[in-house]
Design goal:
It is a single chain. With 433 residues, the protein is of the alpha/beta class. It folds into 3 domains: 31 residues; 192 residues, Rossmann fold (3-Layer(aba) Sandwich), CATH 3.40.50.2300; 166 residues, Response regulator (Rossmann fold), CATH 3.40.50. It is built from 13 helices and 17 strands. It has a 7-stranded mixed beta sheet with strand order 9-8-10-11-12-16-17, with helices on both faces. It has a 5-stranded parallel beta sheet with strand order 4-3-5-6-7, with helices on both faces. Helix 5 runs parallel beside helix 6 and helix 11 packs across helix 12. The relative contact order is 0.12.
Length: 433
């Protein structure tokens, strides 16, 4: 029987074949217009965005936003249908329990990739939780990409197939600092101070071990661990440092714990050096001021004054994106981390975490002259390290200052990736694809 198409309240009779052709012709443009945008690949950043270290969490967020924007600007992650990255933030408030709650929320929201770093204690808790979740829910697995939690145990005894660390761990950073310290022949006494949690303990332990090896003549005249993020007045600590007669301080402190420490040291008139893991950012140079020139040493995976046009272009691009002096906090490793993830997803041809992990552990990534490789044995990223010495902006080798302070860091030592590399005790269990 013929089929009818009703229009303007009149009945028109069409042959069935003609109607089929017309219906398809009308439907095709509608289907084309209705195609949904490709689903984004969700990345969950779980970090302390409030509390005493909220500024460090926000600084990390800017780095990750910039890295995600760069991937999306070139069309996103290249799969059968190109997919953009989307970064969603979850506030752990600097507390491990809150981080676990955030992890559950992130997984419920569809995130397959989790990023965190500003606490080794929190990272350890997340590793345990993700291990259990991935065993319990093999169809909802997630990967953990760590940009700053540097307790060595995380890629040694606590190593996990689901965890990848993109920062040099504490022992690697200490090796770079010691390459400079051992040449300071005037140094005879040092004071070790740090935060009283896993990372602070690891720094103190490794500092004493490496000092005994490379500078046994240097005496440790004091050792102190203080509550993390809870000390408002460091003057009593600074007074003890000065009274000890120490010629230098060695510390892994970061954020406000470092800024307040160096301010207190300046107030009590301590004139020694600071050998630091993080003295090149987040208010520390401005806090030290003129007293820090030639005395504050910092180790990093990269510094703004690393020589070369590619490095300079990288830094200036970031400052164009975030021009406020207070936002001047950029880390090459965080960019390499996001680039590595995008590369691994593309090589795997899927966002399925197990497949991505097997590609990520083989990652070799280069950006603006910096190259890093992931070591499959323990998922510890291997990269060159640099050590910088604080000086006035405009001094030789100090084209760029930090956070508008007028002070920057001149690169005085470059440590090749092979020299910074450390052995591992990891015995990793790998799942089947």
């Amino acid at each position: 029987m013929p089929t009818y198409f009703k229009k303007d309240f009149k009945m028109f009779k069409f042959p069935r074949k003609a109607l089929t052709f017309m219906a398809v012709a009308l439907l095709v443009p509608t289907l084309t217009l209705a195609q949904p945008d490709p689903a984004p690949i969700k990345i969950a950043m779980i970090e302390g965005l409030s509390g005493p270290f909220g500024n460090t969490g926000e600084a990390v967020f800017r780095n990750l936003v910039w890295a995600v924007e760069r991937v999306n600007a070139r069309g996103g992650v290249k799969l059968a249908v190109n997919r953009p990255l989307v970064l969603e933030r979850y506030d752990s408030k600097g507390q491990s329990e809150a981080a676990l709650t955030a992890l559950k929320s992130a997984i419920d929201d569809g995130a397959q990739f989790v990023m965190q770093g500003n606490s080794s204690a929190t990272a350890a808790v997340l590793i345990d939780a993700i291990n259990k979740h991935n065993d319990r829910e093999p169809n909802k697995r997630v990967l953990f990409l760590n940009y700053s939690a540097v307790d060595p145990v995380l890629t040694n005894e606590k190593c996990s197939f689901w965890h990848f660390r993109f920062d040099a761990h504490a022992d690697m950073r200490m090796t770079a600092l010691m390459a400079v310290l051992k040449e300071d022949q005037a140094l005879k006494s040092i004071y070790i101070i740090g935060q009283d949690y896993s990372f602070g303990h690891a720094v103190a332990r490794e500092a004493k071990r490496q000092l005994a090896l490379v500078r046994p003549d240097v005496q440790v005249v004091g050792e102190e661990l203080h509550p993390m993020g809870r000390v408002k007045d460091f003057l009593p600590y600074a007074a003890k440092i000065k009274a000890s007669g120490a010629q230098a301080v060695l510390t892994g402190n970061f954020g406000n714990d470092l800024t307040l420490l160096v301010k207190a040291a300046k107030e009590v008139g301590f004139e020694g050096k600071f050998y630091t893991f993080y003295g090149n950012a987040l208010g520390a140079p401005a806090a030290m001021g003129e007293a820090g020139i030639g005395k504050v040493v910092a180790v990093a995976d990269w510094l703004p004054n690393v020589p070369g046009a590619p490095s300079e272009a990288f830094y200036q691009s970031f400052r164009q994106r975030f021009p406020k002096p207070s936002d001047d906090y950029v880390h090459m490793r965080m960019q390499l981390m996001v680039e590595s993830l995008a590369q691994a997803i593309e090589k795997a041809g899927t966002t399925q975490p197990t497949a991505v992990a097997y590609e990520l552990e083989k990652a070799v990534v280069t950006l603006k002259g910096q190259t890093g490789t992931m070591r499959a044995t323990d998922h510890q990223f291997q990269q060159p390290l640099v050590v910088g010495l604080m000086d006035r902006q405009g001094a030789p080798g100090v084209k760029f200052d930090v956070e508008g302070s007028g002070y920057g860091f001149r690169v005085i030592k470059t440590i090749a990736a092979a020299r910074a590399e450390q052995p591992t005790a990891c015995k990793m269990q790998r799942p089947t694809l």
